[in-house]
Predict the structure.
Amino acid sequence: MKLESFSAILSDCTSKYNKIKKEDYLPEGQFPIIDQGQKFIGGYTDNGGLITDIEKELIIFGDHTKILKFIDFPIAIGADGVKVLHVNKEKADPRYIYYFLKSVKLTDAGYSRHFKFLKEIKIPVPENMDDQIKIARLLNHVETLIAQRKKSIALLDELIKSAFFEMFGDVLTNSKNLPLINFEELVRLKRGYDLPKQLRTFGNYPVYASNSIIDYHNDFKVKGPGVVTGRSGTIGTVNYSKSEFWPLNTTLYSENFNGNIIYIKHFLEYFRLERFSNGAGVPTLNRNLLHNEKIIDAPKDLQNQFATLVEKVENIKIDYNLSLIELENIFGVLSQKAFNTEFILNQENDEVKKKNEEVMEQDDLEQYSKSIDLEKEKVDITNMSFDEYYEIPGEVTFKNEKWITYFLHDDLLYQFLLKDKFKDISFTLGDIEMQFHNFFYHTCDMDFDNERWKQIIFKFLEANPPLIEQIFDQDDKIIKLKLTDEAFKA
């Protein structure tokens, strides 16, 4: 490990790139514009003459925001506060340097410029380039898992939204032609209560401001469940509280309601409450206008079915968010330790040693399953069996009646099981268990592995292209799964 100066590893090449003002960004286009904003791509341009392609891998640094981005495609850059850094590839791997820079805690100078601080750092560089690449790959793998988990959470939010519109239509246009009632017949909103910060005593009850929980108090004003939305300032955000809470005087809360409160929460979100705001300075929600508005009168049983779906999805989101926190913690710890090369490489060597010992202990069939070519071109597997696909000799499967247990690690086995049983029909996890409980019990000497199947389902949902899609079953009023055409290729 050698400590290098910033200038020995990185060069500021910003002047070689064309800058585009924000007002000239296109929302869609042929070429990406990279700036210092939160979004990975700030905008687009169709002017190919503004695109620079002089370095295949580069690092973007936000001089004001301190945001770092790794870029491996031709770009133009935003006009404000963007630094383009090229890596000396004779000394360092660009991704390794990118992850090291992400681990650096720079002085926070507000919206002032931070590049002057970045240039002062020393960079630890392993002399072996392969070691740098291993470290970068490890961190990139965890970062990819974090991105996938965030995408999964976003997909669950989309699932709730899709289910709402499928069941109730567009609440603004009443696309389902449902009967109408006054807004206050569904829910009546009341102004919240003042609670100055100096009078709060930390406790178990959430204190809601106009857009979210801002504190906890040892007393409450409203019994749950209920909804809270902004009365002034931030308008349109709707929060749901299952238990007792304190809504501040910048909010409106559900004084009483006639319907399922979870349905009401989502109805209010899609009803665009900000339309009923007034006030020249700080926008204020006029509840008197709102209470007399005509709205859809959704059947109570349908509201309850929707609420049941939401609760199930929210429980999954809790698990996903906990998983996300765990992954982010792992990334943080690895980022702190990753630039101690000995730590990473010893960890990898131990893992390789362990894997080698495992392989030596496996019998011939298991070694056969590990040696299969997984990179073969995709073919139609609609009428093909799992052993035919892998060309496993008949004498091998005959000699060991439990041969399939050696492939339980292989996702493709589960793809074959699903395509053989659920072609052209929708299904649930419960249906999968009914179909395969006996198979796993008698053939594999094991119980049905719920967790493994959940992993498979979410992996197939998130695949690109996906092997499974989610659909709303009108008859059963639940979300089900359905195989896509991709599930019949391997």
In short: DSSP finds 15 helices and 23 strands in the chain. The two ends are 44 Å apart (CA to CA). The CA atoms of residues 220 and 246 lie 5 Å apart. The longest strand covers residues 251-257.
